[in-house]
Amino acid sequence: MGAIAPSSGLEFKVSLDVRRDQQPHHDTRVDAHLRVKAAGIGPRDEVPAVELAVVIALDVAAGRRESASAALAATLRALPDGASFSVLGGADESGEPSRCYPLRGRWALADTMEKRRAAFSAGRIVPAADDRPPPGYPAWLAAARALFAERPVPLRHLLLITDGSGRDPADEAGPDGDGGALRDELAACDGAFTADVLAVGGDWDPAPLLAVVERLHGTAEHAPDRFGPAATGALRRLRRVRSPELPVVVTARPAVRAVELTETAPRQQRLTPTTGQEEPHRTRFPTHQWEPGTRDYLLTVHADASTDPLGVLLQLATVSVGDATAPLLVRWLPPGVAVGAGATGGGGGTLQAMNAATQMRTALNRGYAALDPMSRDEAEQQFGLAVRLATEIGAAWVLQDVRQVADIVDGPRGVVRVGPTVDRGTVRRGQLHIASGHGLELPGHTTGKPVKCPHCRHLAGPRARFCIACGRSL
Fold it and tell me: Which residues form the VWFA domain (predicted)?
């Protein structure tokens, strides 16, 4: 178990759950569940508004100008006093994003009169023009980056509100919506500011929007044309961030050859490591947007156990977040002793649920991809897998999402039926929703003996009700 230590307005508790008994090999893979719990400390629940600078970029077509102006005005009136803000809207004659507010200078400081003037000026939004190419997402990001260069405050955040009309397909021609121009601009913006995206309407492409928020450590969500409450909620969440960036540090024994870390909840993402030449056995994984709450990770190490002693606990690594640490302990088994299957009280009881959650999200993504173009059999197979795993681990949000595009005939067995037609907008909203933060209620260290499925003989935890392999009742 980990210790508790304060860092950046937060205190952390770090714990590792791993199956202690492992088979020793020249290249042994050890998986562990890393859980980090962060709790706020100090008298404030929100960071001071003076530490916040926000750029609101409004990218809408002419048909949404009236509703967008009203929603922007409501958003501006709700800004916290003391925050720095700037508003971009539409494009000028050269096609570059134009500044809507402030009327003079590049930044305004929120107070009662300034917010009133800004809300009155919301009607100056210039919608995307039909007679010239749109600026494209890279141009919006570059404009925000230039503004933030003048505002060195701890929290710098872009709120991009788009209906897709400002997207230039030539700039995002990559298979994941991150073509050359967008990819290069995201690399330049990473570390300079963070970003959230509000997608209004249903004509936007989710791929570039997800590329933006994944690289800039924010969230993307669908919002109504009257997006004021959604925008205000996004800024309120931002003020709960106590630490914009914090590394997860893994210090390993020389026998450890590789270390990998994947966040599984609230978001699923592979973290990129950094290793300094002066500390070759210490790997840092930058993480972002820390606020009170719980994060779960899959920690994987590859170790050479060929010369290690057998039958004793060995510390392969330590994991640190802030000043809190937890050891990764394993015991190499003697030859001929089989590793106990399932969770047998020796740790690793939560790994099965984490792996199921990863498979579930992957299947859900593939199901949506199969709907465009329509491939009903593939979509039903993938959605069925997602539903079966969601039933196993209690992820109710997956069942709600699938019901928007298919009928769930038998959840435990993973049987779904996709209708003859599916709304493209619903599919896009579902793709955004997968990338949103979803917690996972993982059990503690499971106790008791594993059970075998009477149908397929697959091993399951002692508390499982359905087999994760075949979906039938245990």
Answer: 53-221
Domains of the chain in start order, with CATH, are 4-43+247-339 (2.60.40.3670), 49-238 (3.40.50.410), 342-474 (1.20.120.1690)
* Helical spans, DSSP H, in 201-263: 206-215, 228-238
Cα distance between residue 430 and residue 369, in whole Å? 11
| CB 383 within 8 Å of CB 400 | no
Euclidean distance between CA atoms 429 and 88, whole angstroms: 25
Mean pLDDT, range 207-226, rounded to an integer: 94
Dihedral, CA of residue 64, residue 69, residue 72 and residue 76, to nearest 10: 180
Q: Alpha-carbon distance 467 to 474, whole Å?
A: 6
The string of pLDDT tens digits covering residues 399-437 is: 999 999 999 999 999 999 998 888 889 999 999 999 887
How far is residue 204's CA from residue 348's CA, in Å, rounded to a whole number?
Answer: 42
pTM reported for the whole predicted model = 0.83
Residue with tokens 């619903």: 426
- 337-361 in b/e form (b: 16+ CB < 10 A) is eeebebbbebbbbbbbbbbbbbebb
